[in-house]
Amino acid sequence: MRSPESLALATPDRLRGLRYVWRVPLLLAMVVLAIPLGGVVALLPDGKGDGTREPLAQRIVRYWSRWMLRGAFGFRISNHGKQVQGPVLFVANHVSWMDILLLYTQRAACFVAKAEIARWPLVGWLAARAGTIFHRRGNASSLSAVMAVMVTRMRIGRAVAVFPEGGIEHEITGITTVRTFHARVFQCALDARVPIQPVALTYCRGGCAWDGATFQQGESFIGNFLRLLGEPPLQAEVHFLAPLTTPAENGRRAMADAARSAIAECLSRRA
Question: pTM of the prediction?
Answer without folding.
Answer: 0.85
